[in-house]
Amino acid sequence: MTADVVQGVVATRFAKAVNIGLVAIVGVWHLGLDTMLVLRGWPVYEPRAAAAGSWLALAVIQTAGSILLLRSALSAHTARMLAGAALVTGIVATATYPAGGAIGDVSWAWNTVGWFGVLLLMQRPLWELITLLVANTAVSVGFLAADGALDHVTVSRVLAAVYTTAGIQLTFAYLARQLNDGAREATEIAAGQAEHLARATADETVHAERQRRYEYLRIRVEPLLRGLAERQLDPGDTVVRQRAAVEAARLRRLFVETDDTPHPLLHELRACADVAERRGVRVTLLSYGDLPDLPSSVRRELAEGTLLVLAAATTRARVTVVTTPEDVVVSVVADAPPETLVESPGHLTVSAIYDQEEDQLWWETRWPVRPAP
User: Fold this and answer.
1) Helical packing angle, 76-95 and 109-121, nearest 10°
2) 264-278 and 296-312 helices, crossing angle to 10°
3) What pLDDT, in 10s, does the model give residues 11-20?
């Protein structure tokens, strides 16, 4: 998973948690508090059908908006349309109040429309929510003015109501945005640190791998090259030539070990076969089954025995890789001397048979895909 994907996942989860909390607040507000206020003021609403219809319409708007919000499917056009519908419904509800009742014990639509604006427009630019809240307040003030109830006391009550309702709603929307921005920033910092750590780990891995290769060259290849350069080893000696063939095959396999190929094991075995073919050995490489992803250490041990046999082969060799649900088997048959069996390829299961009559050496290395029960 890349850093951008991690950031997106964390930010999305955090935003979803905020959305769930907001949906819960609006749901409790409308289905709980508004229901009690409507029932308490039911006798004074006129017409009652309009009051009940307004409550029901807002419930439908709330349900639709909540579902779209939680599914991250609330587009800008839909959000504005639902917010406008909520405002119109609030006007209808306010029209059912008794004279001067736009602010009082029987009024319920003002707060509700404001919270609906937060629900629907929180992810939109803040000015859209402010516009809705101003229009919502203007509706109540307009009804009060039309009823001739806009005196000094009422104005004070309106200002207090604006402070305690629209203020809280704006504060909630602002804090939610700040929390989202903070979560996004924290996620970016964490992703940057994770990327830095991953890069450092990769550098350390590459460095360790290089050290392993240098150590191998120092221990295995350097003495051979020094012996040849100082004429302590005879290039015409069969043992020296076989030793050189083995180290050449190992080096070739080591060079291709980190190549990005679909089947690294076959790629490494092919590299070992190439070294033998340069000596005139006819090599056939066969593979059956789908190879799983194998660690480099396992591939190294699986290829080591085949490498030894190919380095000792005289004229012909056949390498076979068989993959089953239980294990991966690498076997080689070649006209190699039995002395090849002296060196073990590693810690995996090994079988070897030398046929004197056919002058053939058979070597098999097996790695279990699934541990035995």
Assistant:
1) 180
2) 20
3) 556 667 778 8
